[in-house]
Amino acid sequence: MPYDVTITRLPLRALFDLKGTATALAAWCGTALPPFPDRPNSRMEAAGRGLCWTGPDRWLLMAALAEEATLAKALRSEQAPDDLSVTLVSDTLTFFAVTGPDATEVMAVVTPLDLHPDIFPQDGAAWTEAFGIRSATRRIAAGYEIAVDRSYADWFEESLRRAST
Amino acid sequence: MLLIDCPFCGPRNESEFSFGGPALTPRPSDPAAVSDADWVDWLTVPPNPMGLVEERWWHARGCGSWLTICRHTVTHEITEVRLGR
Ligand SMILES: [Zn+2]
How confident is the model at residue B46 (pLDDT cuts 50, 70, 90)? Predict the structure, then answer.
């Protein structure tokens, strides 16, 4: 029986990989960033920009692609001090949305991540596995968003479709 | 499959991690003062008791941390996980 889900390949977005302490990054990036998430593997959003805390001193900043140039200018990656790094990685990941009433059922096939709301709540965002490859997964209003390395995108989309039917 | 309780991420499947080898005792500060046999032992012979071993694991598909875990070689029970060494 097919699952009641919709698989959508999402457009490219502006992505910055940030490394460093929250204090050092906040000092360098100033108002360009949303407030820092205070729980590991969670996300804060402000003014359409999302900031995920993905590891000790590791963060992933997302925004609409149209904001890429503005953000790059504000974050001044080339001049960043030695204790942090700011890297533009917009073209490295392809994003998919898995939405609909059965989204969690399909995700249970896709990833071993514990998706129980107590463990992975509404603001959950984490690097994990999806079909055996590294993926950045987070909750969205109607389901989940999964990002994988772009070179895997076609195979990954096909795998998502097979898992949903 | 091991379930490794990453201090940052919580319990995750072993498949998210890469094995980083045994957590060796610190490198002898003066290798010249160590006998050849002891040096070879330190360098190439991992501890392999029927019991607890310390191992390094990299959370490569998760938070990117290097962990040290204490694992029982018979039961695979993990009694300790810590960030770093
Ligand atoms: Zn982790």
Answer: confident
Which domains, ranges and CATH numbers included, belong to chain A? 6-10+92-163 (3.30.1360.120), 13-91 (3.30.70.1520)
A127 Cβ under 8 Å from any chain B Cβ: yes
Euclidean distance between the first and the last CA atom of chain B, given in angstroms as a whole number: 23
Structure ipTM: 0.93
Fold for domain B3-83?
Answer: Folate-binding fold (3.30.2270)
Question: What phi, psi does A53 have (nearest 5°)?
Answer: -95, 100
Q: What is the pLDDT of residue A92?
A: 98
Q: Do B64 and A55 touch (CB under 8 A)?
A: yes
Question: What pLDDT is recorded for position A48?
Answer: 95
Cβ neighbours of A119 in B, within 8 Å: 10
Is A114–B83 a contact, with Cβ atoms under 8 angstroms apart? no
Q: For the full predicted model, state whether its pTM sits above 0.90.
A: yes
Subunit contact B8:A40, Cβ cutoff 8 A: yes
* SS3 state of residue A119: coil
> Helix A22-29 vs helix A68-75: angle between axes, to the nearest 10 degrees?
110
Q: How far is the CA of A134 from the centre of ligand 1 (A)?
A: 13
